[in-house]
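Subject: design request, 111 residues
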């Protein structure tokens, strides 16, 4: 399957979804100036995915590295899609998981 890895994520209101970091004075989370991008979500999730052994860790690393380097459109196998979606599910909440899944495998209307 093929998709654009540079897609940006949004809040349910349609506003851009921004990465957050703690305020140095208050410790409260605040938006940064960087909008959440599908590439970052995928790469971070694949790198954080638990692996059963070194072989699986290396495969995850190689996939993350390949996805980090691609310009925009990326082709992945159905097995890679399953791995990516599973990794995102374990590392992010529903808003990010849902959007990422729809961006990777859009729902096609029935004819």
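Subject: RE: design request

Done. Sequence follows.
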């Amino acid at each position: 399957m093929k998709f654009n890895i540079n897609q940006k994520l949004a809040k349910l209101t349609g506003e851009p979804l921004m990465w957050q970091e703690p305020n140095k004075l208050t410790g409260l989370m605040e938006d940064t100036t960087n909008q959440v991008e599908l590439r970052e979500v995928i790469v971070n999730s694949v790198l954080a995915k638990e692996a059963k052994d070194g072989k699986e860790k290396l495969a995850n690393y190689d996939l993350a590295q390949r996805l980090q380097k691609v310009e925009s459109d990326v082709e992945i196998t159905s097995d890679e899609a399953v791995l990516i979606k599973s990794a995102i599910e374990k590392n992010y909440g529903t808003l990010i998981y849902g959007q990422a899944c729809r961006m990777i495998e859009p729902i096609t209307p029935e004819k």
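DSSP finds four helices and four strands in the chain.
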